[in-house]
Structure prediction request, 214 residues.
Amino acid sequence: MSYCINPQCKKRDNPDAAGNCQTCGTALLICDRYRIIKPVRSPNPALPTDIFEVADWGTDDGDWGTVKVLKTLKHAHNVNLVRSFKQEARVLIWLAGTSGIPAVAPDGFFAIKPHNLSQKLFCLVMEKIAGVNLLEFLNKNQYISQTIAFDWLEQLTNILHNIHKYNLVHRDLKPSNLMLKPDRKLALIDFGAIAEAGINTTPAGSSGYAAPEQ
Prediction:
């Protein structure tokens, strides 16, 4: 299946071989490189972003057919959302190669204009982190040993140290934003609220996890 990137398309599922969406006419090969496989979460008009799995058919042989994650910002008219999305892209490109953080190539941030859409979509392609998030893991397993807890704490401390040394704060740390990979290593995801420490920004975080002063 090929999935249409156009958020206003009425029927987004298409055959694998299709070059353009059979409903709205939008090109299914994004930037002549990425083809959407499926949504990671069900598209919701109320949310500013959509997240998809994509296949990368770029010119780099090492990436040929690699499954990655595509995040799109639909609300290009919202200055604050666009600023945050661009900040997320800049930080992830800057931190490329840092352990425990999704890799983003220098050309992983771009904008496109789907067929018959009045505004452009901002796009961010990043490494797909295999595994399960800690919220799902804990819901399934109920408890963990002290040894595992200390190991996770040490890993998370190292990841946060690598972010904080650049005077950056994640601002949305919670179990669902921590991925447990098959090799039992942790990775931190969802950098949509990232900001420079000490800079006045809009409130961020999730209820139950954000500090009271946040």
